[in-house]
Amino acid sequence: IQLTQSPSFLSASVGDRVTITCRASQGISSYLAWYQQKPGKAPKLLIYAASSLQNGVPSRFSGSGSGTEFTLTISSLQPEDFATYYCEQVKSFPLTFGGGTKVEI
Amino acid sequence: QITLKESGPALVKPTQTLTLTCSFSGFSITATGAGVGWIRQPPGEALEWLALIYWDDDKRYSPSLKNRLTISKDTSKNQVVLTMTNVDPVDTATYYCAHSGVSGHDFWGQGTLVTVSS
Q1: In a designed cystine with B55, which of A42, B34, B41, B89 is the match (CB 3.0 to 4.6 A)?
Q2: What distance in Å separates the CA atoms of residue B93 and residue B91, rounded to the nearest whole number?
Q3: Of the candidates A43, A86, A97, which has its C-beta nearest B108's C-beta?
Q4: Are A11 and A105 spatial neighbours (Cβ–Cβ below 8 Å)?
Q5: Nearest to A97 among B48, B61, B106 (CB)
Q6: pLDDT, tens digit, 9 for 90 and up, residues B51-88
């Protein structure tokens, strides 16, 4: 299952509402996770099951979608949110990641 | 508190076998549903899933690397080991292990950079 993220790069300002899209090559129900990765650090799970917020993740992050189209939304971008975001499908093996979306200032 | 940490050589020569160890705490690999996976990331590139082993010893591999990968667990040591045979410079990457469940990878190690070069 291929995952296509868009955009690949996104320039935004603090306070902006940001939306990242992840499209699957076939239906994956809600078996999708979102991760945030900062330079030199391991990825951090933000959202699982397409829309469930991982413990400790700020509520400005939200996920939606099912089937083949999913979105990650940051309602009000904060300085610490500048990072690269990845989606991952966990519906079937091999597990696959999207190509990433880099959110820049 | 779940923690994981990868260990292994920083430099490997082409054609050699790479062995990486994931040492973990805070969960039991024998608990129903538990899994540990390996993911890698070449410099400046995206994440790539490699392999996963479950509590019941079910093993899953990336088809593109299946012939070169072996994943195993040592429950007495709380470790999961990944071996990759016949490494090539394109295998240069940061290798992560992660606690894996049906919802994704919720806890990750810090990663270990492996360079393949003669």
Answers
A1: B34
A2: 6
A3: A43
A4: yes
A5: B48
A6: 999 999 999 999 999 899 999 999 999 999 999 999 99
